[in-house]
Specification:
heterodimer; A: about 500 residues; alpha/beta; Bifunctional carbon monoxide dehydrogenase/acetyl-coa synthase(codh/acs), Chain M, domain 3; Bifunctional carbon monoxide dehydrogenase/acetyl-coa synthase(codh/acs), Chain M, domain 5; four-stranded mixed beta sheet; 17 strands; about 25% helix; elongated; B: about 250 residues; Rossmann fold; eight-stranded mixed beta sheet
Chain lengths: ~500, ~250
Amino acid sequence: MEFPFEISPMYEGERIRKSDMYVELGGPTQPGFELVVSANKDEIEDMKFTLIGPDLNEMEEGKAYPYAMIYRIAGELVEKDLEPVVERRNHDFQNYIAGYMHLNQRYDIWIRISKSAVQKGLNSLEQIAKATMMLFKNELPFIEKIEATYVTDQAEVEKRLEEAMKIYEERDERTLTLHDEDVDDFYSCTLCQSFAPTNVCVISPDRVSLCGAITWFDGRAAAKVDPEGPNAPIPKGELVDEIGGEYTGVNEFAKERSGGEYDRIKLHSFFEFPHTSCGCFEVIGFYMPEVDGIGWVHRGYDAPAPNGLTFSTMAGQTGGGKQVVGFLGIGIAYFRSPKFIQADGGWKRTVWMPKSLKERIQEFIPEDMRDKIATEEDASNLDELKEFLKKVNHPVVTGIIRDVDGIKITDGWIEEEEVTEVTPEEEAQALQIREQPQIPSMQIQPMYQPGYQPAPQMLPAPSSGVIKLVLKNAKINIEKIIVSKEKD
Amino acid sequence: MVSVAVTGKGGTGKTILSALLVKFASKTGKRVLAVDADPDSNLPEALGVEPEKTLGEVRELFQMSRDDMVSHDKEVWLEGKLMEVIYEADSYDLLVMGRPEGAGCYCYTNNLLKSILRKFMSHYDAIIIDTEAGLEHFSRQTIKDVDYLLVVTDASMKGFRTAERIRDLVKELNLDFRGIFLVANKINDMAKKVIEDYANEHKFDLIAILPFDEKLAELDLRGVPVVKLNGESELVNRVEEISGMIFG
């Protein structure tokens, strides 16, 4: 078929101005949508086009019309999961058509057709549909058969839009239920490497980028378009630690990307080989040994957290692509992840966050934890926080049983009357510390800065010779040691 | 496509120059895009139009709503919003970049915008960008590959210093302009020689010396768009010459 218009990627991004416009389809004033669904090969008549409603040459110049584009595709390799991937390309391909502007996606589509295209002979949507189908088949050879139904009749568009909305919703559902274990590749992001050269951003279905901007789906889309670009696939390799989220492929990638600085990264762990933190993260998590819990503070919160430190102080010391045990930068959407620091108790380990942050993610906090997480209204320092956690009987007080495997990972608070001596062996057993025999090479770093009086709570105060530990021939793995001064 | 960025110290008249360039470039039937890339300036006012939205607002909206986009394509989303922000005047389009970035990471957003803007801008014959002296959008590379830089100065030491700083910045950022030109504005006979000597000494390519224009100053004071200036004006004629030199 000969087309009366040119087809080339050079037409992408071209705006058709109102004064040059023949008609507008969909857009701000009319309903519209685009949809790709898969079907069986025998159900499809290849390259068939059906139009319901008026065609271009029956439309009035300068007016806007409802518009639906529905494609049915088939092929040996065509599967349901490919539908959204193929649908996304309708935008690209239609923008290759000179004089045809395609914007947005799904139920937001906005099309303008130029007067000059009409003057050159564009008079039917069939020409558009045929050109688009041709591009689909040429560029995506797994599509063996395709047919298109375009609708410009108001009632019919609205009726079919309702059906399409259900399909979009189902797709979103599927997206939300896609997990790390379901995919072979994760994606990297190197956009921030100029700020944080050793940063290793790993984006998985259950872990959004630290800046919060890039999901696994974004990474996949970007890698498809530009494999040499900032988002490259990381074959995840062998599973090393299911709960912590450790994979051989990620470790190899971390080693290479950080110049050998780090060789292990666990995606869903706070304490053990945590993800590096660039400087872009939306939220920083901080461990408070005094309550054996983790607090989170976001960029928009200026006041000090209960540990006496502000977001910017903590961010300044943690950022730059370091793996700092005791602090962890994350994107806000990571709070939605079912694997949210699951190795260290997830929500059960979370004790504090600013009210505005808590409100933003409220619905993703498990119901039984919602009232147990303090905000600045409940506690602004450690003493108040301790009181609050005791009052609500937070899991950190009595000891955390990890949801993911039912193992008790913390002992809870040791009564203050007791001398807090810790037998390493017992501690290790009680914590069921995982398979790593060696002590992680990183230390919890107390944070100092000039002019800042170190909060006493950051530093274990040496007791005056009460504790004597003699260890011979011992193999120890200690997650934490709490040493507190006896009360007078 | 020919693109030009107009910069210089605040108050030197760079926005007036930008507005007049838009006027003359669009007179010739070219597809013209005006870009207001200076949050402190008022290019829309100088052009006498009132666009409702800025790209800065879109960027903030994106930062806020991206967590809920699930499987929506973010690049397509941003491109659609950019097109909503474009103001269509009679003979040109206007893009207002708007407020500077807030705290937080814009690496990804800017990376998407960079590619969207590059494609979008490639379809215009003439692009005029009114930009602040810090060249923020250039340093972030959201705006790239602009042909010419016009540095506007008045007859003041501050204006000169700013011009030099801008030139240093261009070097530092490795910006690849085909030409950097100095435009002197509000110059009376006495200052003419000073400017010429200055340009010689500092190896600036001085392409125009514009006089102080009382009628223009009066319009400006009354809040009348400068493009409405009618009748004989030496300044306006000179700018038309500059427009011809750049855009043909």
